[in-house]
């Protein structure tokens, strides 16, 4: 049935129930001039949050400056560092003061997460003191060792130095919260924790007596009232949330990604969601179709990111007809290396560019991702500009 505007308003005036007819509000409320005040306030005015830098300059460049209130889905096949990369992002964002971070882990225990962070720190300490990487420690070794204040690491690293980074509040310009996800976890619980973080910031500002520290807290609270939410990972979370519901795995994933998309809109926060890929991805490169079997993820995600071996990606770019067996062999070969060459591809970006391939050195032993410029190819103009800027600031780079 066709309705004209007069008929629509008549139905509204008669309070026609939604199931019995179509009715709308004043259509002038939907015109661009009427929407502009809200646009200006949220995009250019006091509510504008800006971008949250990830700690990886080239990634920030391809993300148009960093993270915004979007759903970012990070996918990869097993053993390519999905969780580690998400953790590296969390640590970079929190300790640089970009924003608080809430890391929800549905796969690993809280102590395991802390051990992975500590392992990455040991490698950073070695590099800062020009010591060989072999003096760094794995997460397993850290969990089995004595308390930090009683044991000295053979070689370059003392546990006191590691403890100083992990336990010193001044090292973290913003907090990093770690929460263990369980079968009792709900989306409303996540919402409550996010709102609680904002309230805790307001409380910290009120109690702060140091004027300089208070000013810094006020700047952070003004720029980013809500934290970055990172979830590891989708498929396990879906199984936890809907363990007692007769749904298929795809239906469970659909419910979770839809709820997280609504949460992002309601709270205006960036959400980074770690995801596994379909089986076809093990014999090819990561692309949008890699997420198809996981439900609505490719539609509700504002940004899709894929991690894959650089060698496999470069081989595919040279020959798109490359056989699945060759790609499988390249993937297996890279997985066996302690330090792996990994590329992060921007597969989808609703409001940005899609030409980004960012190369990383992933030290799987010590849970550390470092951005690499150029690699085996010539530097792009963007990479050269970023590299020049890093050199001017005296920062370490590859």
Question: What does it look like?
Answer:
By secondary structure, this protein is α/β, with parallel strands linked by helices. The protein folds into two domains: 1-39, no CATH class; 65-308, P-loop containing nucleotide triphosphate hydrolases (Rossmann fold, 3-Layer(aba) Sandwich). Helices cover 44% and strands 14% of the residues. It has 15 helices and nine strands. It has a nine-stranded mixed sheet, sandwiched between helices.
Strand order of the largest sheet: 3-2-4-5-1-6-7-8-9
From the 3D structure, determine the CATH topology of the largest domain.
Rossmann fold
Helical segment count? 15
**CATH architectural arrangement of the largest domain:** 3-Layer(aba) Sandwich
**What is the strand tally?**
9
* First-residue to last-residue Cα separation: 64 Å
